[in-house]
Amino acid sequence: MSRRWLKANALLTPTGLWLGIFLIAPLALVVQFSFATRDTGVARAVLPWTTQAYLTALDPAFLPIFGRTLVYAVATTVACLLLGFPLAWFIARHGGKYRTVLLAAVLIPFWSSYLARIYAWKALLDGEGLVNTMLGWVGLGRDGGFLLTHGVVILGLTYGFLPFMVLPLYVACERFDFRLVEASYDLGHGRASTFFRVVLPGVMTGVLAGSLLVLVPSAGDFVTPKLLGGVDQSTFGSVIDDQFRGGNNWPLGSAMAVLLLVLVVLVLVLRGRRGEDVL
Amino acid sequence: MNRRPWILGFVVFLVFVFLYAPIAWLAIASFNSSRSLSRISGVSTQWYVELFDDSRVLESLQLTLQLALASAVISTVIGTLAAFGLRRAFPGRGLWTVLLSLPLVVPEVVMGVAMLGFFVKIAGIPLGFGALLFAHVAFSLSFVVVVVRSRVSGMDVRLEEAAADLGASPFVAFRTVTLPLVAPAVVAGAAFAFLLSFDDVVISSYLTGVGSTTLPVFVYAQASKRGISPEIVALSTLMVTTTAVLLVIGVMVASWRARKAGSSAQLV
Amino acid sequence: MTDDKIRIARLWDVDSPRVTRRTMLGSMTFFALAACGVGEAPSNSGGSTSAAKATNLKNEPKLNFYNWTDYIAKDTLPGFQTATGIQVTYDNFSTNDEMEAKIASGSAGYDLVVPSDNFLRRFLRSGLVQPLDHSLLPNLKNLEKRFVEADYDAGNKYSVPWAWGTTGLAYSKSQIGGDVTGFSAYDLPNAQGRSSILDEARDGMALGLLKLGHDPNTTDQKQIDDAANFLLSLKKKLGQITSDVIEPLTSGQVRLAQAYSGDAFQARAANEDVGYAIPAEGGLSYVDLLVIPKDAPHAENAHRFIDYVLGAETGAALSNAVRYGSPNAAAKPLIDKELLNDPLVYPSEEQLKKLPFTKDLGGDVEAKYADAWTKVKTG
Fold this sequence. Notes:
The complex is a heterotrimer.
Chain A: H1 3-34, E1 37-38, E2 45-46, H2 52-57, H3 63-94, H4 99-107, H5 114-125, H6 130-137, H7 150-175, H8 179-186, H9 191-202, H10 204-220, H11 223-228, H12 236-244, H13 250-270
Antiparallel strand pairs in A: 1-2
Chain B: H1 5-29, H2 46-53, H3 55-85, H4 93-105, H5 108-123, H6 129-152, H7 157-165, H8 170-199, H9 202-207, H10 215-226, H11 230-261
Chain C: H1 21-30, E1 62-68, H2 76-84, E2 87-93, H3 96-105, E3 112-113, H4 117-125, H5 145-149, E4 159-172, E5 195-197, H6 201-211, H7 221-234, E6 240-241, H8 246-251, E7 256-260, H9 261-270, E8 274-277, E9 284-291, H10 299-310, H11 312-322, H12 337-340, H13 349-352, H14 362-378
Parallel strand pairs in C: 1-2, 1-3, 5-6, 5-7
Antiparallel strand pairs in C: 4-7, 4-8, 4-9
Helix pairs in contact in C: 6-7, 6-14, 7-14
């Protein structure tokens, strides 16, 4: 037991205790539900133990939903990166003494109610909404507007998760030594090569942290697809949600949640030491 | 990239348009004379009047703010400690990172149901403010740790060592060298934790107790029988405007002070 | 099957005396930490069926009321407080599920909750509510006969109706481009991609069953499967499966929606273009009910409140405010004429015959419905 080990664990203890009591212990209940038998009464999950829920959860019928969830999550992450990076870079580089203000300005919209924001997007994007009307002037309008499409779900997710990307990116950019960019130009590198060889490696921890914070929760989000999406917008999260509501099937919902957990944990374990600096 | 900052500036402007488009619409709709959020039929301030008449909205707003503040403080403090703990590799670090990733992965409804069952039946924690606080810190911690770590992991250890060599006690070294370096990340983490708590519906709806309804839970409850309430649209508009105004005033005061002191203030 | 042969374990119920040592040990070896999470439980309702004298466990003038939002008249609570001196804490929930989860946890602290009839059946099966003490409810005589005889709780042993409505079709009169008289309206060209059905297993399935001419309370697996298949084909014409219809109907984004009459009413209040029809094939009635949880700390005060809202004047005021159907026959003369004559709120006798309540079909059949619905939603 080296000193470093002791010190690290001492610093981690409060977090470990908190998560252990208020998160892991409840999750143990979920694992237990997942091996229970479904009950349609108030009990929801009852004895005897069974693996039936897992057999159902691994039904190939759920594969398209899994795929769709992945597409939404990846597309959201990419969109957040594309919008978030210029923003974070600009604030860190050109913000000057207004950096805090600009960063706060990114967060201020989220002081409004989530439901109100989503309804506002619905109002803006529907058939007679402002966006469709304006696009109509230039001949790009679409009958019925843009609601209930995959695109609008990704837009809603991107909107909701953008701060999750901007904050860690800003933290990384703020630390970045901008003189390196000048140096790279002076050495004759073009914009693209400077970006990929100097800038990106320099802010990589931020990119990874932000992507993680967007990718994982957006895969579990179901409220946005439910409110903005159409008939075929069930995601893994919404299927799990359905199992927990309406007295449907708690063991199945729990089993699916456990599988999702195992999948992420596997990815974390398999990546080995690389990226451990981020999470 | 710096040669044409105006291109970058334009892109950033567009991103801000994207961020504020729905907010602008909410501001317009809050003066609508009908209950609809999408069809503007006339101008009226009745929703603002009703908002200030509605003691329940204001009460739950107060509760929500207190909860978000407490949750942000606790998760920022212990999350920052954890981020420092994970700074250098040690046996078992991988396990900790797996633990910290769990709150990001578990779907909210699963967490809500599990916490309700565990808190009430097993741990004997009554529903209400306490249960909400325990839960909010639990799901905010990971975000704080990720953000602070992205800063801590790249920090130069030699700065602190130099401070120690110069005779600074660990506490003084931390306060004068380390803390200023990680401050932006800590502030970002705190902002994160605050907003996560302030906006949470699904988990909270399982944990609110008698007389402790948070605002988002109240809003959802209202929407379920009557559609989204214009009062909430008015409140959202007010919240955004107030924060923006406070921010501008803060900046003006800060820059006025800085000018008075004759030095250029670095706000971050 | 006798009681002791059915081994049903009830979630969270650590204190249940019927948890046998053996199952507990089994659970513990299975998962030491969470073992107390699942235990064995009674198979039928745990509460006694005969009404005992209702008393307050805590002797204080308080009442904790858990209801849907905006589902009350402005004067109901102040009026009750003035009349009885009992202080009411009024909290709201947005789904039956979250309310049920809290009540099932056994220490939510509420004295009075308002589940919908489909959740009442689940509550009764699991003994979550206490029988009502009719000696404290002299105004019970004011109830309309239909709600005394209703099979979800005949004789009002456990529940008293709060307000009721129907499940039908809401539509945009100017945009739908045809007559909405039945489910064939989903075939109208203007409804393509602009229509929705409710995201509730029994309500959604009822649409399929009724369209195929079956009983919405059928227990026949074949009929349930047929209905699911019909809904899967209907899905191609729909825009959404959602219970969130008020704003989409108001804005005209959705032109045809299976909807609860109460929601259709809200949409119509904001946009007069919204119409509502009971389909020729039929529909369902639903009712939200006042019940007292088994662990209510102020059961006697809850009874006093129930009796208060059963009064003719308070019942009428309630109905006039929330604009739902009132189960209170004595209140009828005091209810706005406009409301009484609104077919959206009070369907004709003829139509009411085609609007049964959803029946409790027992655990096995309810599971069939739930599975068929999952198939519809994920298919």
